[in-house]
Here is the input.
Amino acid sequence: MVSTSFIVAALSTLPMSFAYYYPPANGTTTLMPQPTATGAAKTTHTVAVGQNGLTFTPDTINAKVGEDVVFQFFPKNHSVVQSDFASPCVAKEGGIFSGFTFNTTEGTADTTFTVTVSDEKPVWLYCSQNQPKPHCAAGMVAVINPPAQGPNTLAAYKEAAAKTNTSTSPAGGVSGGKVSTPGTPSSPNSPSGTSTGNPAESTGSASSLQVSGALGVVAVFAGLFL
Here is the structure.
């Protein structure tokens, strides 16, 4: 016959046994990180290049930092080049250049040129095509974020451009933006953060092992009363 004191002592170990198999809810179990929703879609400003003759439409774009300006090209072959206000039709060193890769005989070209606004400074633009005549001198100019006041206006820039007789293109390739084909899916973004802990394991076999182990302890103590 098992003594009463032994039974009491044995039963007192049950809470510790269950605590081993079932850790408390406020423990330090590592959970699999969940994806977070991204913010609103980026604002895009679309500019038609050459749709209405030798023009940028619109020719004035007010864009915030981080927003995109997408240039869509119409016949025949145009470009987007950045200059200083004081030097219209002359390419700015290290400035924006789309290159001449948008030649099309009708409709829009298959590719576009996208510039992401990095600051709120004015960006003066022109087309550097010189055939059959200089497009910049003909008034094919535009500006991103023009000054709110002062003499540096698009009208003044266009007037100065009309006094030139040629346009220059940068010697290098595309710069200050990217050429892409609309509708082409982009590569998925990499995760914004990394997880240093392992996810909590929750497989069926592990759960069965824990339950059967706990039931075994109960069975042992129940046999003591028989």
Notes: Confidence is low (pLDDT under 50) at residues 14-25, 27-38, 185-226. Residues 204-223 form the longest helix (20 residues). The radius of gyration is 35 Å. The helical segments are 4-11, 14-21, 154-161, 204-223.
